[in-house]
Amino acid sequence: MVLFGLDISHHQGGNPNLHQARAEGVEFVICKATESSGFVDSRFHDNIARAQQAGLLVAAYHYQRAGVSAQAQVDNVRRVVPPGMPVIPDVEGNSGSAGLTRQIVDLLRGAGYPVPLTYLPRWYWQQLGSPSLVGLPPLWSSRYPDNAQGSIADEYADVPPHYWDGYGGLSVALLQFSSSGRVAGYAPLDLNAFRGTRQEFAALLGGKPPGTDPTIEEESHMELGPGSAVSKTLVCPAVPADLVISLGFVSFTVHHIKFFGPTPDTGHAELASYGEQVVDPARPYVKPVPQGAMTAEVLYSLAPAAEGTPQHTAVAAFRGR
Questions:
Q1: pLDDT at 321
Q2: Which residues, in sequence order, are CB contacts of 153 under 8 Å at separation 6+?
């Protein structure tokens, strides 16, 4: 199975429509957050919100710049990217050495960010003198068969198998195979492919090796912060479990819970759906995870706390049966 996704920034100006993109087979979006020690992508927070509302897996990327300390660059990330969100260093033209990348990765991890991938194209690796990359996260590589605009399926059909070959001692976990894709009627877009399931890619974003099957202990819970009609996607455990949603202080509304399983084409056939429910502080909302479910989408609304009072977050967690 091949999973498809996009990487976007302010250059796309709020495009494409990510709900339509998901309907066309997109399962994840990686959004530019920061660059160097001071640049912040003006669309980052909006792009992340749009992707989450569409039920897509998300991650952030930081464009590494030479001549700027790793600490200054990670400080910039920490001002912008929410704690716990996966962050991927983007290492290409004018990014400096792989040694700087190693420092940035270590500091990001020390600050609590999963660092699942290293975007470092083969051409830039060769420009650096083909150094060993062993010890860095797996590669997010890029190589394009052509520059013609086309759909995801059309563009990926032109990718030869050797584009997945690793280098520097690392394997290629994610392949950017086009910079001229057309999705939801918008072009050009960067298109990316992952050879695996949505569940496996979600595990990778959490910092686990490709192919990892998360257990309840590894993917146990997710905080649900304030917002209106917020969509969150959780990776379901491989063992029998219930999804438990609770908030011990105030009531809030869960608009729906949907469980998805694999299909040959899209990887997200709906297995079960539950409608709107007001979650009482004294009574958690509990629903069984259907057999074969890979992901669960929770759509909810939680009012922000009044000024001067602490903000409480709800929790969605899997509980073994």
A1: 67
A2: 25
